[in-house]
Amino acid sequence: MARGERWRRAAPTDGARTAQRAARGGPGRRDGRGGGDRGATGGVALAVVVLSLALGLSGRWILAWHRARRAVTLHSAPPALPPDSSSPAVAPDLFWGTYRPHVYFGMKTRSSKPLLTGLMWAQQGTTPGTPKLRHTCEQGDGVGPYGWEFHDGLSFGRQHIQDGALRLTTEFVKRPGGQHGGDWSWRVTVEPQASGTSALPLVSLFFYVVTDGKEVLLPEVGTKGQLKFISGHTSELGDFRFTLMPPTNPGDTASKYGSYNVFWSSNPGLPLLTEMVKSRLNSWFQHRPPGASPERYLGLPGSLKWEDRGPSGQGQFLVQQVTLKVPFSLEFVFESGSAQAEGNQALEQLAGSLLTQALESHAEAFRERFEKTFKLKEKGLTTGEQALGQAALSGLLGGIGYFYGQGLVLPDMGVEGSEQKVDPALFPPVPLFTAVPSRSFFPRGFLWDEGFHQLVVQRWDPGLTREALGHWLGLLNADGWIGREQVLGDEARARVPPEFLVQRAAHANPPTLLLPVAHMLESGDPADLAFLQKAFPRLYAWFSWLHQSQEGPVPLSYRWRGRDPALPTLLNPKTLPSGLDDYPRASHPSVTERHLDLRCWVALGARVLTRLAEHLGEAEVAAELGPLAASLEAEESLDELHWAPELGFFADFGNHTKAVQLKPRPPQGLVRVVGRPQPRLQHVDALGYVSLFPLLLRLLDPSSPRLGPLLDILADSRHLWSPFGLRSLAASSPFYGQRNSEHDPPYWRGAVWLNVNYLALGALHHYGHLEGPHQARAAKLHSELRANVVGNVWRQYQTTGFLWEQYNDRDGRGMGCRPFHGWTSLVLLAMAEDY
């Protein structure tokens, strides 16, 4: 029994009895003298106690209210981008784009009330009942491979989509002019996948336009369900016109017979567009080409009637269905009224041979610019590998989206665990221009992914990177926090499980946006430096929040807030804020933890911000952060906190035991069992990516005594080396390949990830070019690792047509979601040896 427990059970002393009587309201003195004074004194004391309690409670309430308010208040620093930076007046070349990455093909404006266009398609008669309607990119819909062959991020793209026996090619090109973003045209070509196919299917394409408010759409009716054109007007676009051109055979101007249907409705909400079209495909029609046998198909209602007219401001949804025999091509043309009125002569419509010429010209310009930028042919890479590089870049650029909306934020109440006692609040409406990790599975913005994305985008178009970074920095709240996952707008929200909608203002994410910032600083581009001058207050606020909010238990240590609690179903509680999710940490989460990767990220941030402050003449900030950067890069401090001599590598520190495992225990299923030795404060014996972070972020001196052992571990096939890249967790680890729960397969427990392999390649290249005892070995390992990583990604791309989220360390097979043109596109920079 504890000492305090024995004390509570002992008999009370006289003094204690007196205190107890006083607490019960009985007399504090036995002689009864001075009763009036005692009553007055007691009343005053009670008033003081009550007042103190009231002030304490009100103070805590005010503090809680203040914290909650700051969590959903935008930062007061000047924006990094000019006002209305997304408008056609400021950035006309970026106003229209393929900014709907979750659909197979569609375009929209960069606006809070956008005009949206898109494509759906269906093969008629291939399955009983309603045909499979293709619209949004899905993991399990059987479509694929698909992806952009070319996309310049601005004005041109060509995509190929395989859907069973069909091959679709979607192309677009923009033409500048006027004051509203110019004109653009699409071409959609549908052909059989295999040549010589005798049974050519009947296919329906659905071209649609959606407005999101009071914008005007006026369809002009032709014959037999065919629209001559759709005219319209919005405040941002002025007057405009859409025209669906007559279908032709691919590659020539010979017309082709098509059957037309149309549907016009109020906008049901963007996530419901597919279901609305499906529900209206309930009438049979005849496709009757001259001289051919008629075929039945399911079509939309035949008459042009605005159905389900909703309340004013709900917007409109207008669909033109065209049904044809494969093969065929269709062109969809958007013309801006101000572009047409700009010159003395009317512009020729961007269609037919003029569109063909524009597409071919842009494709050739893309190839030339690609080789000039990345020099893959010059480096001796094969034609196929060059095509992989082009697809990696194009898939990333074609996955850039524009989002607008309000996220849900759970305020940081200052005490861990207390956040569950408050309700999430809506963040102010904000725009976000960002690349996405995966069009099919993660079609939204992720903070730590975006830093890696922009390393690739930056080499191609620094202006796009400035736009993306400026938008991300626009998400800062009053404390300097940015949510790690951005779910903005109805379309994004519809694809996210409810438990992931809320972002917690106490949780950080690796500050990878500083990687492209560092590259900007090194490049010396005047436009980049001008941007960094404007962005500096926000970058400094963001880093300051990270450094202060994630401080660890001892000086110069750091700890990721937001680890999962030690639930009985989890082998090792996850650390989602780190980005490494189920990578093994201390077995028993506690405030005593010291996380190596976070310390290294903060060290990188301090270094970059110090150099930036010095360059910009921000002497006060440089004087503040310079000593911090020096302290964090000092190897004595790093060794003291994170070098584990008993393990022979850098490691996390915390309350840990390796004697944990999942065991079946009916009826609960798999349950965590903790054996002996019991957990104690020690270094965490999880050898993997985290162990390499001082190397990955180039924090070690070339002559460091720790560099050699890290290279030994990296190069050892018993640990991290594989023929396909570096494993995320050593094959020798007891956690290697282990599930984290009955329903949670391994994620960062052995698989090869391109983002960390790219950091490793950059570090090996760095140390291979610096004089030191490990220079030759680092250079050799760089060459071998690059060959392994690039070779495997290329082989898997040849086999499957996809870039993958991760790769199996045993056989190189692509795993996780696909296509994953997020940080896996870093394979392009690895091929170019650009770090």
UniProtKB/TrEMBL annotation:
Q: Which Pfam families does the annotation name?
A: Glyco_hydro_63, Glyco_hydro_63N
Compartment(s) of residence: Endoplasmic reticulum membrane
Renumbered to this chain, region (Disordered) spans: 1-37
Would the keyword Glycoprotein be found if you checked this record's keyword annotation?
yes
Entry GO CC: endoplasmic reticulum membrane
Under Gene Ontology molecular function, one entry of this record is:
Glc3Man9GlcNAc2 oligosaccharide glucosidase activity
* Domain Glycosyl hydrolase family 63 N-terminal: start-end pairs: 94-246
- Its Enzyme Commission number(s) read 3.2.1.106
- Pathway as given in its UniProt record: Glycan metabolism; N-glycan degradation
Which keywords are on file for this protein? Answer: Endoplasmic reticulum, Glycoprotein, Glycosidase, Hydrolase, Membrane, Signal-anchor, Transmembrane, Transmembrane helix
Instruction: List the InterPro entries hit by this protein, alphabetically.
Output: 6-hairpin_glycosidase_sf, 6hp_glycosidase-like_sf, Glyco_hydro_63_C, Glyco_hydro_63N, Glyco_hydro_63N_sf, Glycoside_hydrolase_63
Q: What broad class describes the main subcellular location of this protein? A: endoplasmic reticulum
Outline the extent of the Glycosyl hydrolase family 63 C-terminal domain. 352-833
In the bilayer, the protein is annotated as: Single-pass type II membrane protein
Which Gene Ontology BP terms does the record give? oligosaccharide metabolic process; protein N-linked glycosylation
Here the segments flagged for biased composition (Low complexity) are: 13-24
* Gene3D superfamilies per UniProt: 1.50.10.10, Glycosyl hydrolase family 63, N-terminal domain
According to the record, the segments passing through the membrane are 39-63
Q: What PANTHER family does the entry give?
A: MANNOSYL-OLIGOSACCHARIDE GLUCOSIDASE (PTHR10412)
The Swiss-Prot or TrEMBL record describes its family as follows: Belongs to the glycosyl hydrolase 63 family.
Q: What does this protein do?
A: In the context of N-glycan degradation, cleaves the distal alpha 1,2-linked glucose residue from the Glc(3)Man(9)GlcNAc(2) oligosaccharide precursor in a highly specific manner. Cleaves the distal alpha 1,2-linked glucose residue from the Glc(3)Man(9)GlcNAc(2) oligosaccharide precursor.
Protein name, UniProt field: Mannosyl-oligosaccharide glucosidase
Per the UniProt record, the source organism is: Propithecus coquereli
Q: What is the lineage of its organism?
A: Eukaryota, Metazoa, Chordata, Craniata, Vertebrata
